[in-house]
Write a structure and sequence with these properties.
It catalyses: 5-(methylsulfanyl)-alpha-D-ribose 1-phosphate = 5-(methylsulfanyl)-D-ribulose 1-phosphate; 5-deoxy-alpha-D-ribose 1-phosphate = 5-deoxy-D-ribulose 1-phosphate. Belongs to the EIF-2B alpha/beta/delta subunits family. MtnA subfamily. GO terms for molecular function: S-methyl-5-thioribose-1-phosphate isomerase activity. The structure is a single chain. This protein has about 350 residues and is α/β, with parallel strands linked by helices. It folds into two domains: about 130 residues, translation initiation factor eif-2b, domain 1 (Four Helix Bundle (Hemerythrin (Met), subunit A), Up-down Bundle), CATH 1.20.120.420; about 220 residues, Translation initiation factor eif-2b, domain 2 (Rossmann fold). The model has no long low-confidence stretch (mean pLDDT about 95). The chain is globular, with a radius of gyration of 20 Å. The longest helix is centred in the middle third of the chain and has 37 residues.
Length: about 350
C-alpha cells in the first residue's frame, strides 16, 4: 500500500540476507524500518510489536526461522528457533501455523539445502498472504457495495476496531482490504476509527493507512461506537481476527466484544475478515480455550504522543501506585458475528459455514 505515494509491503528480504520491516512502534509520527539480521532480532520484533497483526506475525516468524537456519541449519537449532518464536506472542495462531509449515519443510531437507529453502518458503508465505488478503478485499467489498445500494445518496459508514489493514499483514490487510477495494471501485464511504486503547493502533495505524489512501475517516474514542449505532451513523462493522475457532468464535483486540454487543443490539451487521491461517481447527469454545495475552501494565498507565515541540514523548496517565491490568484480546462468540469474510468467500460464523468453505482444512 502507499506511503507518500510510494508502494510498500510491511516486510521484505534485503540483498545481504537480512530482513527489513516497517517499525510500527514509530508510527504515525515517524516512518522508520528495522533491520532483522538474526533469530534474536525476529523474536524481539514480534514481542515488542515492531511488527504486529496476526498475518504479519506469522510471516515474520517464517523469516525468523530462515534467519536461524542461515546461522545454524541443524535440527536442534531449528527446533529451538521454532520454540522461541512461537512463545513470542501466544494468542495469534498464524505464528504457529507459519512456523510449523517452515519446520516441516526444513526438517525434511538436507541441512546444506535448508538456508535457501527457508528464505524461499518465507517469501512464498509472504506472497501467499498478500494474495489472500487481496481476495478477502474482493469478497468483502461486495458487502460494502450492497450497503451502498441500500443507502443511496450518502457515504457508507463503516466502523472498525484496532488495525487490521496492510500494516497487520504483508499487503492489503484483512478488515481494511474490503474498504480499500470498495474505495478504489468508486464507492462513497467513511470510516469510524476506534482509537483502540491501550496501544492506540486505530488512532495511530489505521488512521495513518487511511490517510495514505485518501479515504475519509474520523478517529473516535473507543466508547463512542455504541452511541453512533444508536443514532443510525454506522451501516456495518468490519474487524479482523487473531484466532477463530472451528465454530466461528473470534478472538480480536480487546474491545471487539463490546462493539459486537452494541452492533447486535442495534441491528448493525458485524463482519469479521480473516485468512484461513487464522482458523484454529482444534478449538471450539473460544472463551474457554483461547489463551489471552496479558501485556505489560505500562501500556495502560503510560501513553506516547507528539509534543508541540515535535518530540515524541511518553507520559503517565494514572496515579503512581495504581495497579493496571492489560488484557490484549477478547473473544466474540459466533452468535454475535454476522458473517466471516475469507479468501474463499463469505460464510456464516459456524462450523458448517467454515467447513463449507474449507472442507480440505476442516
Amino acid at each position: 500500500m502507499r506511503i507518500d505515494s510510494r508502494h510498500y509491503r510491511t516486510i521484505w528480504e534485503n540483498a545481504d540476507g537480512s530482513v527489513e520491516a516497517i517499525d510500527q512502534t514509530s508510527l504515525p509520527h515517524r516512518f522508520e524500518t528495522k533491520r532483522l539480521a538474526s533469530l534474536d532480532d525476529a523474536v524481539a520484533a514480534i514481542a515488542t510489536m515492531v511488527v504486529r497483526g496476526a498475518p504479519l506475525i506469522g510471516v515474520t516468524g517464517a523469516y525468523g526461522l530462515a534467519l536461524a537456519a542461515a546461522a545454524d541449519p541443524g535440527d536442534e537449532a531449528i527446533e529451538e528457533a521454532h520454540s522461541r518464536l512461537a512463545a513470542a506472542r501466544p494468542t495469534a495462531v498464524n505464528l504457529r501455523w507459519a512456523l510449523d509449515r517452515m519446520r516441516r519443510l526444513l526438517l525434511s531437507a538436507a541441512p546444506s539445502d535448508r538456508r535457501a529453502l527457508a528464505f524461499a518458503e518465507a517469501a512464498a508465505i509472504a506472497d501467499d498472504d498478500a494474495l489472500c488478503c487481496e481476495s478477502i478485499g474482493d469478497h468483502g467489498a461486495a458487502l460494502i457495495c450492497a450497503a451502498a445500494a441500500e443507502h443511496p445518496g450518502r457515504p457508507v459508514n463503516i466502523l472498525t476496531h484496532c488495525n487490521a489493514g496492510w500494516l497487520a499483514a504483508v499487503d492489503w490487510g484483512t478488515a481494511l482490504a474490503p474498504i480499500y477495494k470498495a474505495a478504489r471501485d468508486g464507492i462513497d464511504l467513511h470510516v469510524w476509527v476506534d482509537e483502540t486503547r491501550p496501544r492506540n493502533q486505530g488512532a495511530s495505524l489505521t488512521a495513518f493507512e487511511l490517510s495514505g489512501e485518501g479515504i475519509p475517516h474520523t478517529v473516535i474514542a473507543d466508547n463512542t461506537g455504541g452511541h453512533l449505532m444508536q443514532h443510525g451513523l454506522v451501516d456495518l462493522c468490519i474487524v479482523g481476527s487473531d484466532r477463530t475457532t472451528r465454530i466461528g468464535d473470534v478472538c480480536n483486540k480487546i474491545g471487539t466484544y463490546l462493539k459486537a454487543l452494541a452492533a447486535h443490539d442495534n441491528g448493525v451487521p458485524f463482519y469479521v475478515a480473516l485468512p484461513s491461517s487464522t482458523i484454529d481447527w482444534a478449538m471450539r469454545d473460544g472463551v474457554a480455550e483461547i489463551p489471552i495475552e496479558q501485556r505489560d501494565a505500562s501500556e495502560v498507565t503510560h501513553i506516547s504522543g507528539l509534543a508541540d515541540n515535535g518530540a515524541v514523548t511518553r507520559v503517565r496517565v494514572t496515579p503512581k501506585g495504581s495497579p493496571a491490568a492489560n488484557y490484549a484480546f477478547d473473544v466474540t462468540p459466533a452468535r454475535l458475528v454476522g458473517a466471516l469474510i475469507s479468501e474463499r468467500g463469505v460464510c456464516a460464523a459456524s462450523e458448517a459455514g467454515l467447513r463449507g468453505l474449507f472442507p480440505d482444512l476442516a
